[in-house]
Amino acid sequence: MVLSLVGSSGFYGGSKVREHPIRIYDTMTRRKRQFKPLNPPEVTMYVCGPTVYGEPHIGNLRTFTSGDLIRRWLTRRGYRVIYVMNITDIEDKTIRDSGAAGKTLREFTDHYTGVFLRGLDLLQIGRATAHPRATAYVPQMVEFISGLVEGGFAYEAEDGVYFDIDRFPGYGRLSGVDLSKTERTERVASDSYDKEDAQDFALWKKATPEELSRGIFFESPWGKGRPGWHIECSVMSRELLGETIDIHAGGEDLVFPHHENEVAQSESLTGKQFVRFWLHMRFLKVGGRRMGKSLGNYVSFDQILEKHSPEALRYFYISTQYRRPLDFTWQAMEAAENTVRRLGNTLDLVDDALRGPDDNLDYGEREDGLLKSVRAGEEAFGAAMDDDFDTPVALGHLHAVAGAINEYITGPANKGALAEAARVYRGMLGALGLFEERRGPDEAADRVMAAVLGLRDDLRKAKNYAFADMIRDRLTEAGVTIQDTAGGAAWRMSKG
Length: 496
Prior knowledge:
This protein has 496 residues and is of the alpha/beta class. It is 45% helix and 15% strand. The protein has helices spanning 58-76, 92-100, 105-122, 138-150, 209-214, 229-241, 255-270, 301-305, 310-318, 330-355, 365-386, 391-409, 415-432, 443-461, 465-477, and strands spanning 23-26, 31-34, 42-47, 80-85, 154-157, 160-163, 187-188, 200-206, 225-227, 245-251, 275-281, 284-286, 289-290, 326-328, 480-485, 488-493. Strands 5, 6, 7, 8 and 9 form a 5-stranded mixed sheet that branches. Strands 4-3-10-11 form a 4-stranded parallel sheet, with helices on both faces. A 3-stranded mixed sheet has the order 13-12-14. A hairpin with a 2-residue loop joins strand 15 (480-485) and strand 16. The protein is elongated and about 90 Å long.
């Protein structure tokens, strides 16, 4: 079933598409192009999701953070984004490692799917419109492969069904592979291989004795077996988003062979353009080398959480544009932690000022200067994000807005002007997926806390310090920090 989003507000609350041209670097054409979806304001977007055979490392999560950032910005610009991120639960590695763990394939992949989704939630990566499992679409994969065989694009061999890359004249356009310079053999059964080994690839793999004994197989016209990895995304994107999609994204390691093979098999079957814009996220590196499980140099998400907040990791990711390599160091993480602490402190200062006394009801030069600075920062932030999601430049404008607010709060604040500046600031943070739990002052909570702090103040005046301290301690346990100042007690929600 092809997904659709009903209503003008969109799935994530977008508004009418604004006249803000967005330019995106397209891997296929190797240049920035103005983004124009096939059926505006709807945008169909597919990001290759995880192969669930182990805990995600922070290199994997950079790709998914980038996908979330792109979806957020398109939504902010008024598009209705139908976003699909698959779960690869049947593939060479999931079969291999589930067997080694002594678990069924479903039990094994269910566990690591849960681990992955936990990581998304902690990093404030919004759930996709759909997270389809590959195993749920095997009948459609069989139908897709049958169409390729009938069209003469694929053939059956002793161990499975293979796509004939010589039948697709455009093979190599996406990755730049030159077939005349590769070492050609008849075909390759492995899901992963290098450009130098470009050859016919597996669409369907006939079951091995181990897979038969473990019940890991599906019925097909070619006997018991399972799909090859590359066919899975072609089928799920077609089923959920249609034959031509606006955006297909993934890590740079997927350009070849995975995405190259997707183009070949999809366009051979439909005769239509498969993807309008290809986006690829660069590697996260350690010591100049790509981070990867196979290289043994990866840092797990939980290792990060032992020392730093998810907010800091997300900031670290977006401190470099998605199309640039990013080198991981613990020093860089510490710097990111300190930076998000300063950004959060601006929110604290705003909340305190908005809860404070009305010492300034006028609109003068200070207020005018604040709002002019904030609106200029918002405009420049948007221009940076419209330019291929240039987060480092956008962050510079975010910090400028935070600085303007901080400077303004050093004097008596006009709450109306400050609230407008805070609205812009929170909107910029939200576009980047930062501090989503900080929605600003809650009037009901303010009233409750005013009553509680008033009671505590009365107890202190009556010298009943034990009871007053008990109130403070109970609030601390509930995640509320109390700070006594010359102007009275202030409160805020504790972080983490």
